[in-house]
Write a structure and sequence with these properties.
Radius of gyration: 28 Å
Strand order of the largest sheet: 3-2-1-6-5-4
CATH class of the largest domain: Alpha Beta
Number of helices: 20
Number of domains: 5
Helix content: 40-55%
CATH superfamily of the largest domain: GAF domain
CATH architecture of the largest domain: 2-Layer Sandwich
Largest sheet: 6 strands, antiparallel
Number of strands: 17
Strand content: 5-15%
Shape: flat
Length: 582
């Protein structure tokens, strides 16, 4: 894994590359999983990832050292760092080191003999204890390691290195939370590695361009043909450099959006049979390139399912871009999805990349697809068929390599019968349908979800809540949950806020009279009479006293996302103030 300093001396002689102890005698990964573990520190992790994202955007050349410093800090380790494979994949070298071993940065070791090689060979994280017993050359590195925790990381499915933390003494032992944090950091390491490689490639291209320009200046005026050939080479190199710059820009934008985005919860919570069936389908379709159409009521976690598909696909190291089709103003849909050129319309003061371009090589999630207007449906159909699009105001097609996942809470077959959704687009999207069950269909998951949300919001509020009352438990189990998991989340958050004891209870009045199925609000682009739709929205605003979002807002009463309802209110020019003052 490392030599003492940067020289390849005695520790790497073949006589020293003989295992003094079997691998099983120094690996204690299972013991780590059985140790008592501290509670997950999601907020601390999120802050660290946000800081790393900013560092990647501001100082990409030093991001690997910044990442090593952050691992050293978060795991409270004595040393931490990243080991990368050389281009010929025959050796590892320490690309970044923090802590006691920082003087050894840049040192290297054979690929086929050492802890990093064993981790890649087994394709899994490992915890080592006193690894110098197996790898004698590590006895040259001081101070010695008491424990070493290593996690591999990948780019496009190929292992490129390991991220690790070391404890030199017995003041502490690594636990399962350390492993979870290091695995989380490994995913960022993949993105950081790609950015660094892009920069190195860019430097090579720039150097090659400068060399070519120098050679061009040395040619005589009479060498017309060689000058023309060299000029064409320069133009091609400039084009490639520009493509690399745009790709790095896209990846940085998406990475910052993903880290800043507050998800409903970090993992899928539940073990009910309906949820297990959905996850089984996710596992089957994720490795493919097939288009997926996710259906289900509002608040059931359709975006979480889409993210799970992306995470388990071959595109997991590239961008996941989410678009709420219902929240985009009608006039800006084409620009938002496909981008626009400078001067394409009033207010287009510079070129803007669309969501499809930002998702290049990754996955785009089109939420509320049933709310797209008819002309946008036609454009999207052509994009799915031809695998290319044009920016607004553009002069030529742009080829795309993007996987499409769509979702809706509408019945698209009914919309097709009503003439508000194209049948050909439906069949293009409905290659692999997934229906997410409503919360009332997976009631056995409610206790687990309640426990998760209590822990989350109690920690945020600085309260200690041991459990819930029996009456509250029965109430939560018997309620119909028209707003599904999103409504449950809001109710638990409110209960935690008003709770004065360590036993959580919920006022039955918070739920009474709300377990009903309201008439669905049609899309603002459909042909339903606008006056009827406006009356429904105004009635809901009157009941909620002008409030749109939240568990008692008009959006929850109508069973639609608050962003969708806000868009409809704006389109119909409904004034919310009279309802607030009533």
């Amino acid at each position: 894994m490392i030599a003492s300093g940067n020289s390849r001396n005695d520790p790497f002689e073949s006589s020293n590359q003989i295992a003094a102890a079997p691998l099983e005698s120094i690996v204690c990964t299972q013991a780590l999983r059985n140790r008592p573990s501290r509670s997950p520190e999601y907020e601390k992790e999120t802050r660290a990832l946000a800081a790393l994202a900013r560092a990647l955007a501001d100082s990409p050349r030093t991001i690997l050292q910044t990442l090593a410093d952050k691992v050293f800090e978060m795991l409270n380790a004595d040393s931490a760092g990243l080991s990368l494979l050389t281009k010929d994949e025959k050796r590892f070298y320490w690309a970044a080191v923090a802590g006691a071993w920082r003087p050894h940065v840049g040192a290297d070791a054979p690929r086929n003999f050492g802890p990093c090689g064993d981790v890649l060979d087994h394709n899994s994280p490992m915890l080592f204890a006193h690894w110098e017993r197996r790898y004698p050359y590590l006895s040259w590195v001081m101070p010695l390691a008491d424990e070493g925790l290593l996690v591999p990381f990948y780019v496009n499915g190929k292992a490129v290195g390991t991220i690790w933390a070391v404890a030199h003494g017995n003041r502490r032992k690594f636990d399962a939370e350390d492993l979870r944090l290091l695995e989380s950091m490994s995913r960022f390491a993949s993105a950081a590695y790609q950015s660094v490689q892009s920069i190195e490639t860019l430097k090579v291209e720039v150097a090659a361009r400068e060399k070519a320009e120098t050679a061009l200046q040395e040619l005589t005026d009479g060498l017309e043909i060689p000058v023309r050939v060299r000029t064409e080479e320069l133009e091609q190199r400039n084009k490639e450099v520009k493509q690399l710059q745009e790709q790095l820009y896209k990846e940085n934008i998406v990475l910052r959006e993903e880290i800043d985005k507050a998800s409903m919860f970090e993992e899928l919570v539940g073990s009910s049979e309906p949820l297990r069936k959905v996850l089984l389908q996710v596992a089957k379709v994720a490795p493919t390139e097939s288009t997926v159409l996710i259906t289900g009521e509002t608040g059931t976690g359709k975006e979480l399912i889409a993210r799970s598909i992306h995470k388990r696909s071959r595109r997991f190291s590239r961008a996941f871009v989410s678009v709420n089709c219902a929240a985009i103003p009608y006039s800006l849909i084409a620009s938002e999805l496909f981008g626009h050129e400078k001067g394409a319309f009033t207010g287009a003061v510079q070129r803007r990349l669309g969501r499809f371009e930002l998702a290049e090589g990754g996955t785009i999630f089109l939420d509320e697809i049933g709310d797209l207007p008819e002309d946008s449906q036609h454009t999207l159909l052509r994009v799915l068929q031809e695998r290319e699009f044009e920016r607004v105001g553009g002069s030529g097609p742009i080829h795309m390599n993007v996987r499409v996942i769509a979702a809706t809470n509408h019945n698209l077959e009914v919309a097709i019968a009503d003439g508000t959704f194209r049948a050909d687009l439906f069949y293009r999207l409905n290659v692999f349908p997934l229906e997410v069950p409503a919360l009332r269909e997976r009631r056995t998951d409610i206790p687990m979800l309640v426990e998760y949300f209590i822990h989350r919001y109690a920690k945020r509020a600085g309260k200690k809540i041991r459990g819930i009352s029996k009456e509250t438990s029965n109430l939560l189990q018997s309620y119909d949950w028209p707003g599904n998991i999103r409504e449950l989340q809001n109710v638990i958050e409110r209960a935690v806020i008003v709770s004065d004891s360590d036993i959580l209870s919920i006022d039955e009045q918070w739920l009474s009279g709300r377990a009903f199925r309201p008439p669905a609000v049609t899309s603002p682009h459909t042909s339903a009479p606008a006056t009827h739709e406006k009356d429904i929205i105004e009635a809901a605003l009157s009941e909620s006293k002008g409030r749109v979002a939240g568990p008692f807002g008009a959006a929850a009463r109508l069973g639609v996302p608050s962003s969708t309802l806000e868009s409809k209110i704006k389109v119909m020019k409904i004034n919310k103030r009279p309802f607030k003052e009533a």
